[in-house]
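[Q] Does anyone have a clean structure-token version of this?
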Amino acid sequence: MNCPIINLFTKCSCCGWMICEFCVRLMIAVIAIVFGSLIAWKPKKTIDIQIALYRPFNWKIEPISMEKEIKNTRIMGSAVLVLGILSLGYILLK
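[A] Here you go.
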């Protein structure tokens, strides 16, 4: 089933005025690819954002080894990117 409208901000016409399952799967795959590439490309910025998000809740988080944390974050981002690409390929080829 291929959706003629790939835009979640309008009502999809392929499934009775609701967003179709194809569009939802496609958007999840695209979001995974975007976030995975950003996390793999800028791991230090990702860690800084996480620290800033926890600060209002009165939590102070600091990695024991920043070098290991950056390496692990880059690996995690790469894994999310690869899974996003694989799921996009599966969705489009199905």
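[Q] Thanks! Anything notable?
[A] Residues 35-93 form one domain.
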